[in-house]
Amino acid sequence: MALAQLSIERLRCIESAKLELHGSYNLISGDNASGKTSLLEAFFLLGRGRSFRSRRADALIRHGCGDLVVSGRIATATRQRPVGVRVSKEGMEARVDGRPATGLAELATVLPVQAIDPEIHRLIEDGPQERRRYLDWGVFHVEPNFVDEWRRYQRALKQRNAALRAGHAPDLVRAWDSELLDAGSTVAERRRTYLDRIRPHVRAVGRRLLELDVELTLAEGWAQGRSLAEALEASWARDVERGITHAGPHRADIGVRVESHLARGLVSRGQQKLLAASLVLGQLQANAELGSSLAALLVDDPAAELDVDNLCRLLEAIKDVPAQLLVTALDPSTVAQLDVATGHRFHVEHGKVTRLL
Fold first, then answer.
1. Quick check: is 4 in a domain?
2. Residue 188 domain-assigned (yes or no)
3. What global pTM score does this model have?
4. The total number of structural domains that make up the chain
């Protein structure tokens, strides 16, 4: 499964563009601020309902316009599936196969997409939310029922927190505990199993890129050695005092360790980029092995903050990932290692896209 065609209307500096994409490799070159990254954002929007640069989809709307539209055709073994997203100040509308999408999860199902961009280091440097999002995206694509359990947990958590903030009687607050425990335990187990599956892949890519031992650990969101039920009981007084549930999968985090030390705040910016890339590339390799649909990998300016040797290692690792590649570069020669004779090449200038022969 790969995106065969991408059409864009009124997104950032791009007034209108249509690209016929190759199923394996696509190179997009152009000067800074020409619109290269905007093309990747449009692709990401189709698969995630947002940009990898901004949580607000309406921030992508071209200045002075009321909306943006991104659409495409996904090539499968038997047919081509239309998919589209319209974003306005009022919200977002998504369509799959000519009908309204059931939600953003359906977009993710039909178009799995990950990105390595100059801000990828935030996966290591920022707080737990980024790493939970990374982990859950992976679980979602190999465990079809995971999203239902995650939603069930989120609903119970929202209701329990609302009851805590309202100062309801303990029995009314704890009426949500059974649902919270059931769904939360399932979410935690799915995450635990998935992390076990991707560890060796991340370790292998990390060794290849950094020549160091990279390990992932999972903090499930409550004290180690306790069950979730015991953790909820232990945090009850604090929950009541502060009006929020303190124990549960919503507080989980991945520990990223290099040579047995937590990487956050330890390794350099360039190393953080390679380390985060190891997580993404290892995840894509593991998901392919586990039977997930072919994903797309968007690589924005891979040369940023990397010396020649590290860039070469990164490009060699990217070549081995089973994914549809879209790569941007100021100078195509910097990514010549990725050159595939049958791939497609595009040049962007002032938001105008030209296919190169």
1. no
2. yes
3. 0.96
4. 1
